[in-house]
From TrEMBL, chain A:
<dbReference type="GO" id="GO:0032543">
    <property type="term" value="P:mitochondrial translation"/>
</dbReference>
<keyword id="KW-0436">Ligase</keyword>
<feature type="region of interest" description="Disordered">
    <location>
        <begin position="31"/>
        <end position="56"/>
    </location>
</feature>
<protein>
    <recommendedName>
        <fullName>Glutamyl-tRNA(Gln) amidotransferase subunit B, chloroplastic/mitochondrial</fullName>
        <ecNumber>6.3.5.-</ecNumber>
    </recommendedName>
</protein>
<dbReference type="InterPro" id="IPR014746">
    <property type="entry name" value="Gln_synth/guanido_kin_cat_dom"/>
</dbReference>
<feature type="domain" description="Asn/Gln amidotransferase">
    <location>
        <begin position="397"/>
        <end position="542"/>
    </location>
</feature>
<dbReference type="GO" id="GO:0070681">
    <property type="term" value="P:glutaminyl-tRNAGln biosynthesis via transamidation"/>
</dbReference>
<keyword id="KW-0934">Plastid</keyword>
<dbReference type="GO" id="GO:0005524">
    <property type="term" value="F:ATP binding"/>
</dbReference>
Automatic annotation (TrEMBL), chain B:
<protein>
    <recommendedName>
        <fullName>Glutamyl-tRNA(Gln) amidotransferase subunit C, chloroplastic/mitochondrial</fullName>
        <ecNumber>6.3.5.-</ecNumber>
    </recommendedName>
</protein>
<dbReference type="InterPro" id="IPR003837">
    <property type="entry name" value="GatC"/>
</dbReference>
<dbReference type="GO" id="GO:0050567">
    <property type="term" value="F:glutaminyl-tRNA synthase (glutamine-hydrolyzing) activity"/>
</dbReference>
<comment type="similarity">
    <text>Belongs to the GatC family.</text>
</comment>
<dbReference type="Pfam" id="PF02686">
    <property type="entry name" value="GatC"/>
</dbReference>
<comment type="function">
    <text>Allows the formation of correctly charged Gln-tRNA(Gln) through the transamidation of misacylated Glu-tRNA(Gln) in chloroplasts and mitochondria. The reaction takes place in the presence of glutamine and ATP through an activated gamma-phospho-Glu-tRNA(Gln).</text>
</comment>
<keyword id="KW-0547">Nucleotide-binding</keyword>
<keyword id="KW-0648">Protein biosynthesis</keyword>
<dbReference type="GO" id="GO:0006450">
    <property type="term" value="P:regulation of translational fidelity"/>
</dbReference>
Length: 546, 145
């Protein structure tokens, strides 16, 4: 397989700290209004695939074929309890300790829904521009698997809590840029299954082990419309889901811990064909960069089969992304649709929302990523700055606080994206860990702007404040010291030459007189000489042999 | 098992279904008031056609129950009776009734998100047949999709 295909995405692209690349590009592209440019593209019917992956081979393929991609995202909610019982919902607890008759499905046990799950469902539904069902219900999805103690999963089948929404994303410039809107089919509430693991013991092939702490933990499943057309678009959709759940505070969105899981459905079809091709599902995607590469791999694989007249070899199946081999491999073939025998959950009442409740949640929603990006853009920031700042909710909040103190917008963005980002990366810290408060960063920017301090001193002060805290005023006072040894030496020589008597006494053993000389020099410098430097040079001069 | 088999029958019987579930109480555990529910689910297919006779073998398979041929015969007749009864219920004219997504229950009973550790976890763990240290041990899964 072509390696260029896999070079298209920087592994760190979606993380906060990939600033070097972004910085260099910002300079050349600052004056391009990306949003205006590309919103037209969105309106036009797509005659050819978007060129936003940077691979020639894929470009070739996408002249003839169009990929159709839909994504199912499972979001584990950061509630204190499980969905239907009061067992603690805490990642990393001792295995099989967070269990009770309800989540273990013991006879007679009755589930009771946590109000927080409804709250989070409404929040996410509204954030994704969905219509809410004022009445929704739970159903049982039945299947047999060792991680599912009850023999069924409580989910929402035909009446989900939210449906018919959309999400807006910005494609990064290095992948072609542009603004896209992807449809959201539905959002529904359900419970997670336990965790099924391979045993480390020798009989690995014979047995598996289960931790049921996760069984019954609340999830929101977000189903997208099949609106994505490339790996980059899918990864950007996934990133936006992560940003949204983090902005809302409904989940930590951590992919490694499995708090955010994306399953991708993908098919390709010759351009112009109305029917969808055979759909393949890809699982085991634990990073957005992997998602992008897996999809581009899968597009190439399927197109190759088409081109070789072997389209019948594209079958309905679940494939896994193999990170080591950088390819997708068959996990299981699906023979017919699974029969989950859904039926209404008899132990749970319908979920009723009042319009008043919905309105109160709508009023309490934070500013969401898309609104933030558009606001930053309207402030005159370039799209790369905008994407960087809005990517991480804590960075965005920090930035908002800095500019809220009246700091120059562009300077604040520059400090955050360059020196502060580099510092965070080196120290492996997040913005919430730094000792530099937004207020002091605003002060620093103001001090440089009104030329109280030079940019060079400003940078020194920045790093000291990042590491140790303190105030810009305090640092400026400190920095006002005369630190030039030549200048200090001049003052010392002057004092010495004006005090021959004291010098003689000193040299004949009255070394306490050092304090007299130091006091004189300090007086001459109006208290601004660096004391350490002063004393060092003074001693040298006093003790110097003629 | 009887309940589960009944549910299996009901869910395998489109287009309109009425299901009844009466689960049992266990006095050793802490529960809320039990509610017997009659739920009604409307399918898009509104033709209340004659219900199909049960394929007991398939039902047993989907519910992961092993039945002997004589049990299949015995069950078949009983399930048939239940289905016929559903058939009778389906003849009730409900065209003037607004569909409900769920039967009326005393609603609004949501729970606060306050964690509470179940005291008698040991009795649950005691009923688990095999452990691998802290984990439950299960046979390797052979996918049956
Ligand atoms: Zn529980």
């Amino acid at each position: 397989m072509s390696t260029t295909l896999f070079r298209t995405i920087q592994p760190n692209h979606f993380t906060l700290l990939t600033t070097a690349l972004l910085r260099t590009r910002t300079k050349t592209s600052r004056h391009i209004s990306v949003r205006c440019q590309t919103s037209t593209t969105t309106q036009q019917p797509r005659t050819s695939a978007p060129k936003n992956h940077g691979s020639n081979k894929l470009d070739e393929i996408l002249k003839d074929y169009e990929a159709v991609i839909g994504i199912e995202t499972h979001v584990q909610l950061s509630t204190s309890t499980k969905a239907f019982c009061s067992c603690p919902n805490s990642y990393g607890s001792h295995p099989n300790t967070s269990i009770c008759p309800v989540c273990m499905g013991l006879p007679g046990a009755l589930p009771v829904l946590s109000s927080k799950v409804v709250d989070f469902g409404v929040r996410l539904g509204l954030a994704l521009n969905c219509s809410l069902s004022l009445k929704s219900k739970f159903d049982r999805k039945q299947y047999f698997y060792p991680d599912l103690p009850k023999g069924y999963q409580i989910s929402q089948f035909d009446v989900p809590i939210a449906s018919g929404g959309y999400v807006d994303v910005d494609i990064p410039l290095e992948f072609g840029g542009g603004h896209r809107r992807f449809g959201i089919t539905r959002v529904h509430m359900e419970e997670d299954a336990g965790k099924l693991l391979h045993s480390d013991a020798g009989d690995y092939s014979q047995a598996m082990i289960v931790d049921l702490n996760r069984a019954g933990v609340p999830l929101l499943e977000i189903v997208s419309e099949p609106d994505m057309r490339s790996g980059v678009e899918a990864a950007e959709y996934g990133s936006e889901m992560q940003r949204i759940v983090r902005y809302l505070g409904v989940s930590n969105g951590n992919m490694q811990e499995g708090s955010l899981r994306c399953d991708v459905n993908i098919s390709i079809r010759p351009i112009g064909q109305a029917e969808f091709g055979t759909k393949v599902e890809i699982k085991n995607l634990n990073a957005f960069s992997a998602m992008s590469r897996a999809i581009d791999y899968e597009i190439t694989r399927q197109a190759l089969l088409y081109n070789q007249g072997q389209a019948d070899k594209i079958v309905t199946e679940t494939r896994l992304w193999d990170e080591g081999a950088q390819k997708t491999v068959t996990m299981r073939k699906k023979e017919g649709l699974a029969d989950y025998r859904y039926f209404p959950e008899p132990d749970l009442p319908e979920v009723i929302l009042t319009q008043e409740y919905v309105d109160s949640i709508r009023a309490s929603l934070p500013e969401l990523p898309e609104a933030k990006r558009r606001r930053y853009e309207a402030m005159g920031l370039g799209i790369q700055d905008v994407l960087f700042l809005a990517n991480d909710v804590s960075v965005a909040e920090y930035f908002d606080e800095v500019i809220g103190k009246g700091a120059d917008v562009k300077s604040a963005a520059n400090w955050l994206m360059s020196d502060i980002a580099a510092y965070l990366k080196n120290e492996e810290l997040s913005i919430s860990d730094v000792k530099l408060t937004p207020h002091e960063l605003a002060e620093l920017i103001a001090a440089i702007k009104d030329e109280t301090i030079s940019g060079k001193i400003g940078k020194q002060i920045l790093f000291e404040l990042l590491a140790k805290g303190g105030t810009v005023q305090g640092m400026i006072k400190e920095k006002d010291l005369i630190t030039d040894p030549v200048e200090i030496e001049k003052m010392i020589m002057k004092v010495i030459s004006e005090s021959p008597k004291q010098l003689e006494q000193y040299r004949s053993g009255k070394t306490k007189l050092q304090g007299f000389f130091a006091g004189q020099v300090m007086k001459m410098s109006k208290g601004k000489a660096n004391p350490a430097l002063l004393n060092k040079i003074l001693l040298e001069k006093l003790n110097a042999k003629e | 098992m009887a309940t589960r088999a009944l549910l299996a029958v009901v869910t395998a019987s489109p287009p309109r279904m009425i299901q009844i579930k009466a689960s049992t109480f266990s006095s050793s555990l802490k529960f809320q008031r039990h509610i017997t529910t009659i739920g009604r689910c409307f399918s898009s297919d509104t033709n209340p056609s004659v219900l199909q006779p049960p394929d007991v073998s398939r039902l047993a398979e989907t519910a992961r129950i092993s039945l002997t041929p004589s049990e299949i015969e015995e069950c078949g007749a009983k399930i048939r009776q239940v289905i016929d009864w559903f058939g009778q219920l389906q003849q009730v004219d409900v065209s003037s009734v607004e569909p409900a997504i769920r039967a009326e229950m005393e609603g609004g009973n949501l729970r606060e998100d306050a964690p509470e550790t179940f005291e008698n976890r040991e009795s649950i763990r005691a009923s688990i047949p095999r452990f691998d240290e802290v984990y439950l041990k299960v046979p390797k899964v052979l996918n049956k999709e």
